[in-house]
Amino acid sequence: MTTKKNIGLHWFDPFGTTDFKNICNVPPIDGVADHRYVFWDQEVIYKHSISQFLDQYLDVYKGQTTLVHSEHSSVDVAWVKDTYRLTDAYYFFHGWASLDWYRGYNRSFLHQSKDIKHTFLCPNNIVGGTRQHRIELLNQLAKRNLVKSNLISFPLTCPYEGLVVTDYIDYELPLPLTIDDFDNHANNSHQITMWTQAANSLVQVVTETSYYGNKNHLTEKTFKPVVLKQPFILVGNRSSLEYLRRYGFKTFSSVWNESYDLLSDDERIIAIADLLEELEHADWASIQKQCEPIVQHNYDWFYSGKFEQVLWDELLGMTQTW
User: Fold this and answer.
1) Quick check: helix, strand or coil at residue 38?
2) Residue 209: CB partners within 8 Å, gap ≥ 6?
3) pLDDT tens digits, residue range 124-161?
4) How far apart are CA 240 and CA 218, in angstroms?
5) How many other CB atoms are there within 10 angstroms of residue 258's CB atom?
């Protein structure tokens, strides 16, 4: 591994922010950086938000800059590199975050015996802006009469953008939808809280942060059903399941049709809703039994150190030329 003496490191604090005012800095040894690394690894890259940041950042910090991110095969990363003449480096930040946040649950006694009463569990919190795919999914679930019989949380008004959900759905629903009396599950990124709900649901529908566009970006949300020993269906970018399998996890194509993963943005949510409708009328006991070895593999892979080793090799590979 080669090391440059004068590296400048920049990241954002508090967690999840991307404003220039929140940039943190580890200055180089002699105060003059040969190369700077900007860690935009927590959040999804969108042209409008990263442009606002880089226009300010590059006006202050001159010279060579590498954008460190957590997006695989991303057209937005390609656009940033071309527009701002930056280099880039990739690693799976949210894999590391999940291992940190969810450590120790394998040593607990929180798992419960399965008592399936619902087809799926689907927590949601932010539904405006770039996350309106969650509203699209709710529309499709309502169209198929899948809302009342399942565990779904959904706000009446997006807590971050003020978007009123009823202005965007085609059906009358008793919003907000709640899972139970303690209904901020979807906002507890760093905790696993839905033990009973997971035990009572056949699958978890993970509505990921990123859905639209050609990129892969998964967050800690995807690993919650892994820790809960629950099968999952991913509402994320095209090829999200394929991307997850790159890291050693298994998905459920041997149990149900996962071709939705390769469909276009317009088609994918409809196919997922169709799949959930099929599962609503399926033999739950048979499906649960078929899923058990896959669920156990994913749980063991997450906690055995094998997933961490994959991430560590990836991280070393990223930094070997720094």
Assistant:
1) strand
2) 44, 130, 131, 217, 219, 221
3) 999 999 999 999 999 999 999 999 999 999 999 999 88
4) 7
5) 18
What is the distance between the alpha carbons of residues 223 and 190, in angstroms, rounded to a whole number?
Answer: 11
Torsion-angle region of residue 94: left (phi > 0), alpha (psi -120 to 50) or beta?
Answer: alpha
Specify whether the CB–CB gap between 50 and 40 falls below 8 A: yes
Cα distances (Å, whole numbers) of residue 138 to 98, 119, 276? 27, 15, 12
pLDDT > 60? residue 219: yes
Maximum Cα interatomic distance, the chain, rounded to a whole number of Å: 67
The two three-digit tokens of residue 186, written as one number: 């979807």
* Cβ atoms 95, 307 nearer than 8 A: yes
- From residue 74, give the alpha-carbon distance in Å to each of 60, 67, 210, 211: 27, 13, 12, 12
The arrangement of strands across the sheet holding 201-207 comes to: 151-152, 118-122, 201-207, 232-235
For the chain, which residues make up each domain, given as ranges? 7-90, 110-303
Contact 111, 303 (CB under 8 A): no
Q: Other C-beta atoms within 10 Å of 35: how many?
A: 15
Question: Is the separation of the CB atoms in 2 and 320 below 8 Å?
Answer: yes
CATH 3.40.720, applies to 110-303? no
Report yes or no: 77 and 69 within 8 Å, Cβ to Cβ: yes
Residue 277, amino acid: E
Residue type at 65? T
* pLDDT tens-digit series, residues 168-215: 999 999 999 999 765 554 557 789 999 999 999 999 999 999 999 999
Residue 33 neighbours by CB under 8 Å, 6+ apart: 6, 7, 8, 27, 61, 63
Does residue 276 carry a pLDDT above 50?
yes
The β-bridge relationship of strands 118-122 and 87-90 is unpaired
